[in-house]
Amino acid sequence: MYTVRQLRNALRLCITPALNWRFHHVTPQFVEDLRSVVGDSNVSTAMTVREHHGRDESMHSCQPPDVVVWPQNVEQVSRMANLCFTHNVAIIPFGTGTGLEGGVNALKGGVCFNMTNMDKVLNVNTEDFHVTVEPGVTRKSLNTYLRDSGLWFPVDPGADASLCGMAATSASGTNAVRYGTMRDNVINLEVVLSDGRVLDTAGKDRRFRKTSAGYNLTNLFVGSEGTLGIITRATLRLYGVPEATVAAVCAFPNIQAAVDSTVQILQCGIPIARIEFLDDVMVNACNKFNGLNYSILPTLFLEFHGTEAAVKEQLKQTGEIIQLNGGSDFTWAREQEERNRLWTARHNAFYAALALRPGCQAYSTDVCVPISQLPRIIVDTKEDLLQSRLTGPIAGHVGDGNFHCIMVLDLNDKAEVHKVKEFTDRLARRALSLNGTCTGEHGIGIGKRKLLREEVGEVGIDVMKQIKATLDPKNLMNPGKVI
Amino acid sequence: MYTVRQLRNALRLCITPALNWRFHHVTPQFVEDLRSVVGDSNVSTAMTVREHHGRDESMHSCQPPDVVVWPQNVEQVSRMANLCFTHNVAIIPFGTGTGLEGGVNALKGGVCFNMTNMDKVLNVNTEDFHVTVEPGVTRKSLNTYLRDSGLWFPVDPGADASLCGMAATSASGTNAVRYGTMRDNVINLEVVLSDGRVLDTAGKDRRFRKTSAGYNLTNLFVGSEGTLGIITRATLRLYGVPEATVAAVCAFPNIQAAVDSTVQILQCGIPIARIEFLDDVMVNACNKFNGLNYSILPTLFLEFHGTEAAVKEQLKQTGEIIQLNGGSDFTWAREQEERNRLWTARHNAFYAALALRPGCQAYSTDVCVPISQLPRIIVDTKEDLLQSRLTGPIAGHVGDGNFHCIMVLDLNDKAEVHKVKEFTDRLARRALSLNGTCTGEHGIGIGKRKLLREEVGEVGIDVMKQIKATLDPKNLMNPGKVI
Lengths: 483, 483
Known about the structure:
transit peptide (chains A, B), 5-stranded antiparallel sheet, homodimer, Alpha-Beta Plaits, 8-stranded antiparallel sheet, Probable D-lactate dehydrogenase, mitochondrial (chains A, B), oxidoreductase (chains A, B), alpha+beta, Uridine Diphospho-n-acetylenolpyruvylglucosamine Reductase, domain 2, Uridine Diphospho-n-acetylenolpyruvylglucosamine Reductase, domain 3
């Protein structure tokens, strides 16, 4: 029997270690201990290696880990996690380093677990539509592997990220409007917890399409950004490769007309596979970069998947909706080469934006609002960009209400970096004020922790902290991220 | 600074209260305290009322709460939860009482929160495809409310359950193959925690289609069966009403052929809306009950949603697949009346099963396996039924790998009840041995806690217990359920 007071103290204890824990840095003996687990060649303390692992593709400057290890299997991950737990050393999982919110920065030093050597595709199942992958398998390598199976994995964030890394950040991208995000497509995860225990979030080797058995641990770990455990295996849903694919492009007189078309396409139940928005600034940049001559107007890039007859019908319906909304230059293509040509502008948008200011870097903002709020937030954001004199062409997954400003800036110009930071905070708060989220698909990482608090409120943050504290009582798992 | 030992003790303390806590029963003064929150007419200690709230539609016999309350708003729920927290009294949320695993049984007495007086539909949004409902709103009442909006909520477990209750058990049903389960369709939940704190799982009034902001609390509460908090509001995804609906029925020479057809339909990417399986015993029961003359064979009931042209094409493709697999008697219908006639057998399956043994009761089992394993498990289960001399015709959501035996039994015959219990445990373990789950959509409730442990393993149960203990440290929320 415990008293209420004892329990309250226990609970407080569970919430507070994050604030109080002292991280230990890595000693030579500790490095030897790691070597004894994975072998000499799979441990590095070289500064170049550590620096390579100390940052991702975001604006956050490099914070290298003390040591990088390359585990070969889950047993090694578990043993090394347990070593870290015993010695109070931080753990940072590393996939391809293509994150956008500083998720791999080693704020407290510690051990970076580079998972790329665990790269096997396991158990492709063509009857049950699933596959199991190790954390080194990337999205593109999986689809290459699946090429002759008639199946594919549709979640596509752009970068050739590792699938377990995509699970860790709840990634999505262009296909989400039809196929959902990682949250919808992860069936099961194998996770190493901070003390080295190995958890199968849905039970070992389970791969059903649905369940009501207990708490949904799978979706607790999807989007947890390495702060609750290291993902060492993921079972994912697969889909049949569509018989036919048609790409299309259409310009609109204004943003409202483009968004209205999107809403009506969804209202009609047209199972659109992709519906991407570029603003006039981005279209102009793409024209210049790719030698194209699209009208410099808000533009939608669309893709339809289905049977020959189905995509034909979808295309016809969509054409009618677009016409009703004053769309122009509606062009479509069926063959792959033609489709690629049509989508060149969208595919190269990031590089086209970069080319606006040679020698600069780019940082992608990431907010998501109810679709009906898109015209308002995009118009306001464009006005803000003008007034702030910042370069930030807009590309968006408009079917989800998710859009990005590709901020092109000189990272050596401290004043500009500060201005961009202020702009992105304003943008996030604008999304929050419209019932939206401060991140649709990039995650919280380092920079959005304050925004997360504003988004979910005090009770929400407290509950997240309680969960973090009970699963990672020493706050060793990717410390300083998310909460 | 805490020592590892202190933290480990805290953690252990967090896991164990469930085993040690002493529940207090309700005193007259406590009932007065409840009355002062919700008013005299919204509190009852009458035995008939308590007994009405002490069981659901499962085999578990009645265990009445000490008192039933009808809160009118979230503030009252919060104040009464806090009263329970202070006085160590158990809380059991109650929707429509249509659960199937004893989720409302008051194992430890306490206060039953009947949520049906909070029954407003809030914020139907036709551009963003969502609605917010209070916990008294049922699935059918919502769709009646939406009738003129061109939108609908597709999750359909059969019973006219409350939507928040459906969220609590992660319900699904016939449409899940196309539209997903509650896990896929809940955008946000307002939840009262055990100490009375009010949590908005995705942040207050947030209603985006996707997010990567922090831990997915929404999906932690979906399927938590009232053991983590009381759901007081749910924001749900809506869908456009399809332009055309076609229903179809087809018989197969054997179970394998029916399942093969299902797999091929999914492989072809046909967006089938429903695909339901009845075994020969069930078809025979339906023929007798409804005066039909279907061939007494494994039978699929199908439904297609889309535009006129799309459903026509889906029907044609499906017809070809069915023919290749030796299907016969393929019949389809377009008009609502005709469709209802065609699906009568499926709709009345439960009552047709009951009619096999007049005066008996029915209990529905609920397992889910990878689709490819369905023929094997159904054949084995039918053999088991024969050998056990039990009546249990089979109906299944075959597109999800989920099926039910409608066990018809005499609840007064202890030996038969015991035999059914043994059979259902064998069935669940058969599902587990085929990588499946012991519950696809009914939940764990009272009877499947041991099976849950077998399904998710020791680490899985420990993690669930940690989460339960940190969010409900006094184990007051629906105690004795799930874990």
